[in-house]
Design a protein that fits this description.
Oligomer: heterodimer
Helix content of chain A: under 10%
Strand content of chain B: over 45%
Largest sheet of chain A: 7 strands, mixed
Largest sheet of chain B: 6 strands, mixed
Number of strands of chain A: 11
Number of helices of chain A: 0
Shape of chain A: globular
Order of helices and strands of chain A: EEEEEEEEEEE
Strand content of chain A: over 45%
Number of helices of chain B: 0
Mean pLDDT of chain A: 91
Radius of gyration of chain B: 13 Å
Largest interface: A-B, 29 and 25 residues
């Protein structure tokens, strides 16, 4: 069974540009979450999608946006890039929206490493 | 505001020793506490998890100790091996929103 696939794995952008990152979840998984990982900050939650609807959103500015398609694939977009946006962006999929009693294990991709110059 | 506080930031342990990583939380609505392990160049992977209705869970050399009244939980790695060298993240969740600690970089010296 294929894991979570993220593309591109590495990219370099300059300030002011925008970037789109892609995530293909594990087959059958309908929930996709995005996290920003930076040294010292750990994993910061960006947003979560389920059945093409954003269910939760973290505390990030509106420059960060995302969407989910009918096949559960997801994209996130960052506009007007800033130096501080340099990070590893991780996508995680899970089988369903976690209800009480379910484990809701997150399966992470290897991430897209963004460098903003 | 960090919902889950993790310590230490880094840890060096001799092979065969015990590695201990601690986490604390405030939100009593959290009902699931996983630990994730991340190797360089890889995404985090679930290592072990616990629910607040039990005080301890053991899987092989890995044990979670959970103290509900203190709102603290910890990961113990017994007989630590060089292959355990990785970054460890604790997390807490309610619903589908997960809050992660800042991570602990563990180095096990042969």
């Amino acid at each position: 069974k294929a894991g979570v696939t993220q593309t591109p794995r590495y990219l370099i952008k300059t300030r002011g540009q925008q970037v789109t990152l892609s995530c293909s979840p594990i087959s059958g998984h309908r929930s996709v979450s995005w996290y920003q990982q930076t040294p010292g900050q750990g994993l910061q939650f960006l947003f979560e999608y389920f059945s093409e609807t954003q269910r939760n959103k973290g505390n990030f500015p509106g420059r960060f946006s995302g969407r989910q398609f009918s096949n559960s694939r997801s994209e996130m977009n960052v506009s007007t890039l800033e130096l501080g946006d340099s990070a590893l962006y991780l996508c995680a999929s899970s089988l369903f929206l976690r209800a009480t009693g379910d484990t809701g294990e997150l399966f992470f991709g290897e991430g897209s490493r963004l460098t903003v110059l | 505001q960090q919902q889950v506080k993790q310590s230490p930031q880094s840890l060096i342990v001799q092979k065969g020793g015990i590695s201990i990583i601690n986490c604390a939380y405030e939100n009593t609505a959290f009902d699931y506490f996983p630990w994730y392990q991340q190797f360089p160049g890889k995404g985090p992977a679930l290592l072990i998890a616990i629910r607040p209705d039990v005080s301890e869970k053991k899987e092989g050399r890995f044990t979670i100790s959970f103290n509900k009244s203190a709102k603290q939980f910890s990961l113990h790695i017994m007989d630590s091996q060089p292959g355990d060298s990785a970054t460890y993240f604790c997390a807490a969740s309610t619903g589908n929103q997960f809050y992660f600690g800042t991570g602990t970089s563990l180095t096990v010296i042969p």
